[in-house]
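STRUCTURE:
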């Protein structure tokens, strides 16, 4: 894939970029290592000052970068502005809380005494340059939720962004430079996927984080494992959205529409499989389908647009193949299901009923505004359907019964259970999955410690 800005609303290539040559990659790796040697010794107060300044600059330029994101990957511009605002919030949160999250942990007196020590503590020290391989779907947020904690921990960042969002990638490097970060603390590597292995194997790179597809995660994890380097992976998702009889059906259906089509349906944590108890199946289906059908699809720069184009022509083709396979194998299309005529990579909000395990869409991630509906006879069947997936990122549960909540939290195979609400990420709470959705956690104290050397310091009596 060429490194290029291609407007998905029109299919027009706006600008192409040359990949960095080997000499420039070497210079950037050397700068990263030198920057780390200095940055790791800075105080939390200095790191917080720099990150607050970067947050202020992003806040000031929020509308401009939102338009860049919309141009590059097609999300409605209102959602792009919301994404940038969320990044500002996360940067300020980590600037204000990192010192507390990484404070030394003193062992209890009895434990220290038992080990023969006068004092024992745990200290969190930075690892070094961290390579971030990031996706196009949330081109700002995915990077900031890595960069903010990594920089506050004393690490430095190397960004290999998706090849269809180069302007956003370059903006991020300039953002941190403009905030006053020393040269090399955060650098964008305009390189193709074929160059990632050599960068990851370089001894100056200490660890890697990847958000993206399962094949990409498998590749990075394999290389990092061979080099014995720490990785955090956030991969695909096919999140269940379970609706039980006690749920507020109107609210559940309205939230379900947003949960499915946020970011044009191209979100790992979007609800994708809607598992509804038979007692409320018809009522929910009627409201949900009506809501999906009523969405405004169009120019993502239009303030009224709710669903824009998919990010790439291949992405739309992949989605069409999943829908076509489902229909050929007996699925019922309740709305959507056919691509519109005209330019751009649009696909309509689509609801499929009568989905069975023999269909590809039952096991594969539908990365676009396509929802699958399942009827469950009871809680046990709802859990079984929800867990019948290779993914386990997050989940949504709608019920007013505490006993139901306890069962779902106990039994759902997912990194998150959101009760009577839509899955979302927040800087204060850990985020990540199980199964083929990856491993490790981002955000919160759990996320900032992922790329730290957790060091035991023992003092003899």
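SEQUENCE:
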């Amino acid at each position: 894939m060429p490194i290029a800005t291609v407007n998905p609303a029109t299919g027009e290539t706006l600008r192409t970029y040359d990949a960095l040559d080997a000499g420039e990659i070497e210079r950037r790796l050397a700068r990263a290592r030198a920057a780390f040697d200095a940055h790791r010794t800075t105080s939390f107060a200095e790191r917080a000052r720099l990150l607050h300044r970067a947050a202020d600059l992003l806040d000031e330029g929020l509308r401009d970068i939102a338009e860049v994101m919309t141009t590059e990957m097609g999300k409605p511009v209102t959602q792009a502005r919301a994404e940038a605002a969320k990044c500002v919030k996360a940067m300020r949160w980590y600037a204000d809380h990192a010192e507390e999250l990484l404070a030394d942990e003193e062992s209890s007196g009895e434990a220290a005494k038992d080990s023969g020590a006068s004092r024992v503590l745990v200290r969190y020290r930075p690892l070094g340059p961290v390579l971030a391989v990031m996706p196009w779907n949330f081109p700002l947020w995915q990077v900031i939720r890595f960069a903010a904690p990594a920089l506050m921990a004393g690490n430095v960042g190397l960004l290999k962004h998706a090849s269809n969002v180069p302007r956003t990638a370059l903006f991020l490097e300039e953002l941190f430079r403009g905030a006053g970060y020393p040269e090399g603390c955060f650098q964008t590597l305009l390189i193709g996927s074929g160059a990632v292995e050599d960068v990851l194997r370089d001894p100056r790179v200490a660890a890697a984080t990847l958000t993206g597809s399962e094949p990409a995660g498998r590749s990075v994890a394999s290389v990092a494992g061979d080099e014995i380097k720490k990785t955090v992976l956030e991969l695909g998702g096919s999140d269940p959205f379970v609706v039980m009889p006690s749920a507020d059906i109107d609210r559940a259906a309205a939230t379900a529409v947003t949960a499915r089509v946020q970011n044009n349906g191209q979100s790992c944590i979007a609800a994708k499989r809607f598992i509804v108890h038979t007692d409320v199946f018809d009522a929910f289906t009627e409201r949900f389908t009506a809501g999906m059908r009523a969405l405004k699809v169009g120019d993502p720069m239009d303030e009224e647009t709710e669903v824009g184009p998919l990010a790439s022509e291949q992405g739309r083709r992949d989605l069409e193949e999943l829908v076509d396979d489902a229909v050929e194998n007996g699925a019922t299309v309740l709305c959507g299901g056919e691509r519109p005529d005209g330019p751009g990579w649009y696909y309509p909000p689509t609801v499929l009923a009568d989905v069975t395990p023999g269909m590809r869409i039952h096991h594969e991630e539908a990365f676009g505004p396509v929802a699958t509906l399942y009827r469950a006879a009871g809680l046990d069947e709802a859990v079984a359907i929800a867990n019948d997936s290779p993914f386990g990122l997050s989940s949504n549960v709608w019920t007013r019964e505490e006993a139901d909540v306890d069962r779902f939290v106990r039994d759902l195979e997912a990194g998150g259970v959101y009760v009577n609400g839509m899955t979302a990420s927040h800087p204060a709470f850990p985020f990540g999955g199980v199964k083929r959705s990856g491993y490790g956690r981002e955000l919160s104290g759990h996320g900032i410690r992922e790329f730290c050397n957790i060091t035991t310091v023992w003092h003899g009596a």
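REMARK: The CA atoms of residues 2 and 305 lie 29 Å apart.
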